[in-house]
Design a protein that fits this description.
The complex is a heterodimer of chains A (263) and B (251). Chain A is built from ten helices and nine strands. Chain A has 263 residues and is of the alpha/beta class. Chain A has a single domain, classed as P-loop containing nucleotide triphosphate hydrolases (Rossmann fold, 3-Layer(aba) Sandwich), CATH 3.40.50. In chain A, a hairpin with a 2-residue loop joins strand 1 and strand 2. Chain B is globular, with a radius of gyration of 18 Å. Chain B has one domain. Chain B is built from eleven helices and no strands. The mean pLDDT of chain B is 91. Classes of the chains: A alpha/beta (263), B mainly alpha (251).
Chain lengths: 263, 251
């Protein structure tokens, strides 16, 4: 479903992603792990048509993101690290607007939206403005929305950041059920290792732009001779803390916090 | 088409739902109308220029359209990092349609804001002196929309190049306020010192305010057709530049 061959992305003299190759099978849940600044986000941006690779090849559902941008965009759904909902619209309107953008036909649309919102337990809140939702509710709505247009692949970029264990647990149950029912391929990143260990079929670990290990959680533990994935991860990527320059989004986040804006 | 419509609808829905913002944005124009209108009215009249409130009201309408549309455009920075716009960047639709729909929506909202100020100005003593009030009010709405279109596209273009709000104050100080004060919104365009005369001539809002004044109190410096042409051409240019910058956005 996803095939990446010798993918490289350079920003000036800096190589963010360095000759990366991997593939994800149809219906698989695949975890893409790595410390901050390892190249995770850059890779996801290239997979989701937001960034052009310097060299190498990507195949998403049979299409090349650089050439067949629209076909690739139609093939996936995405949950970003930061919310991408419209706060001044209701849950239902957010779903409906997504359906219009992805040209989901109006036949049975209401039924589809109801089914997904019931799935994430938000149907009774469908007419509530999203600004009145908690962080966890927003995430659930985003997950429901990302599945709306029957995508072949779902990208989840740190979807559980800042959520309590209850909500996280529920969220992964929704995603696993949808993965089973709709045969959607799931590609996700996270910093919670126990999450990856529990949910993912296969895992790839990226560091300094290169894939340093891949396999099932059990295989990674065996390779590194460790008892859990967290230790295996530290073994593979070292213990130094990675410093990252603040991005535009980071600056906006701290701006929002200073102003006490609730999003 | 459906993309343009849905982006337009979104802007309008957001506007109609944020009552506090609508009312908040009326404070400034009312203050200008009352403070300048009554404060300088006597001086204006003694200088033989007639009723200042009537002269000022079209300028203040132009100002509120300018502020609302620039704000609406620049607000996109927020929308891009934490809002619905980010969703649209990975949707299988053309970026031009997204940008165009958003600008049209923003321009519609700014026009509505201008209309509210127009209605309120009657309370401050503004009166129409025209034989066909409906026709000329419709013409004034066209001018409001053209002003709104240009400045929403400008704001969106600027926002496409920024990644956070650091530059926002700069835009206010060096784009929005000069555009307002140098447009003839609060003073007549005739009899200006030469330098000032040329500065006002390169300010796009000048033609908008002149058109509004022509439509509402039949007192324009340029021909109304000329005002419309200048604004329409500038809007088209700004839409092209804006959509180019917008298409280059990387998240």
């Amino acid at each position: 479903m996803i095939t990446v061959t010798n993918l490289t992305k350079k920003f000036g003299g800096f190589t963010a992603v360095d000759d990366v190759s991997f593939d994800v099978q149809k219906g698989e849940i695949f975890a893409f792990l790595g410390p901050n600044g390892a190249g995770k986000s850059t890779t996801i941006k290239m997979l989701t048509t937001l960034l052009h690779p310097t060299s190498g090849k990507i195949d998403i559902n049979g299409f090349d993101p650089v050439i067949h941008t629209h076909e690739v965009r139609q093939s996936f759904g995405i949950v970003f690290q930061d919310p991408s909902l419209d706060d001044e619209l209701t849950a239902y309107e957010n779903m409906y607007f997504h359906a219009v953008l992805y040209k989901v036909g109006t036949d049975g649309l209401r039924e589809r939206i109801r089914q997904l919102l019931e799935f994430v337990e938000l149907w009774d809140k469908k007419d509530v403005l999203v600004k009145n939702f908690s962080g966890g509710m927003k995430r659930r709505l985003e997950i429901a929305r990302s599945f709306l247009h029957h995508p072949k692949i779902i990208f989840l970029d740190e979807p559980t950041i800042g959520l309590d264990p209850q909500t996280r647990n529920h969220m992964w149950n929704y995603i696993k059920d949808l993965n089973r029912e709709e045969e959607t391929t799931v590609f996700f990143t996270t910093h919670y290792m126990e999450e990856a260990e529990r949910v993912a079929g296969r895992i790839a670990v990226i560091d300094h732009g290169k894939i340093v290990a891949r396999g099932t959680a059990a295989e990674l533990k065996r390779q590194t001779g460790t008892a859990n994935l967290e230790d295996a991860f530290l073994q593979l990527t070292g213990r130094t803390i990675r410093e990252e320059e603040a991005s535009g989004a980071d600056r906006m986040r701290s701006f929002a916090q200073r102003r006490g804006i609730r999003r | 088409m459906s993309t343009i419509y849905i982006m337009w609808l979104r802007q309008v829905k957001r506007y109609l739902r944020s009552r506090s913002r609508i009312i908040g944005a009326l404070g400034q124009p009312i203050l200008y109308l009352l403070a300048l209108g009554y404060g300088l009215g006597q001086v204006f009249q003694r200088a033989g220029q007639g009723n200042y409130i009537e002269f000022l009201a079209p300028g203040i309408i132009g100002m509120s359209v300018l502020f609302t549309s620039m704000f609406n455009g620049v607000e996109m920075i927020w929308d891009r990092q934490f809002g619905f716009l980010k969703e649209t960047m990975v949707a299988p639709v053309s970026r031009f349609n997204i940008m165009f729909g958003r600008v049209l929506g923003g321009a519609t909202v700014a026009t509505m804001q201008g209309l509210i100020v127009f209605v309120l100005s009657f309370a401050a003593g503004f009166r129409l002196h025209l034989t066909h009030p409906l026709v000329y009010t419709a013409l004034a709405v066209i001018f409001m929309f053209l002003i709104a279109l240009f400045f929403t596209a400008l704001g969106t273009g600027i926002a496409s190049m920024l990644t956070d709000f650091q530059g926002f104050q700069l835009i206010m100080s060096f784009v929005v306020m000069p555009t307002y004060f140098l447009s003839g919104a609060i003073f007549p365009l005739v009899g200006l010192p030469t330098v000032m005369k040329y500065i006002t001539r390169i300010d796009p809002l000048t033609y908008g305010v002149d058109g509004l004044r022509g439509s509402l109190i039949a007192s324009n410096t340029f021909a109304l057709g000329f005002d419309i042409a200048v604004l329409a051409i500038l809007s088209l240019i700004m839409l092209s530049i804006g959509s180019y910058l917008f298409s280059k956005i990387e998240i």
